Amino acid sequence: MSVGGIVLALVIGLVAGLIARAVIPGKQDLGLVATIVLGLIGSVVGNLLAGLLLRGELEFDLGGWWASILGAILVLGVYVAVAGRGRRSVTR
């Protein structure tokens, strides 16, 4: 992968992560690096699922912005659901 490809992947990850954080309600304690990682993981998940649903093949394609954003929303939703369980305190 070229330097331009790496930069493009980071930009896609950042944009997808920021959009996902804006869509999912609640406070997410994520910094800039965690937002980029969230977006990159979401991009991979979203594009793999889009390839499976649309073409019937489980192949990776980094070109779909909409799939990257939807994947990041899905990944952040799962993260909030899982991390939210551990952060609740029991008060009596």
Structural account:
The protein is mostly helical and 92 residues long. The protein has a domain at 63-91. Helix content is 74%, strand content 0%. The chain is built from 3 helices and no strands. The protein has helices at 3-23, 32-55, 65-87. Helix 1 crosses helix 2 (32-55) and helix 1 (3-23) packs across helix 3. The radius of gyration is 15 Å and the shape is globular. The model has no long low-confidence stretch (mean pLDDT 77). The chain crosses the membrane at residues 6-24, 31-53, 65-84. Pfam families: Transgly_assoc. Its main location: membrane. It is a multi-pass membrane protein. Belongs to the UPF0410 family.
Structural features:
92 residues, mainly alpha, 0% strand, globular
Radius of gyration: 15 Å
Q: What integer is the average pLDDT?
A: 77
SSE order in H/E notation?
HHH
Range of helix content: over 70%
Biggest sheet overview: none
**Broad shape:** globular
| SS elements, strand count | 0
InterPro entries: Transgly_assoc
Keywords: Cell membrane, Membrane, Transmembrane, Transmembrane helix
Main location: membrane
Transmembrane segments: 6-24, 31-53, 65-84
Secondary structure blueprint with pairings:
Blueprint: H1 3-23, H2 32-55, H3 65-87
Helix pairs in contact: 1-2, 1-3, 2-3
Summarize the structure.
This protein is an all-alpha fold.
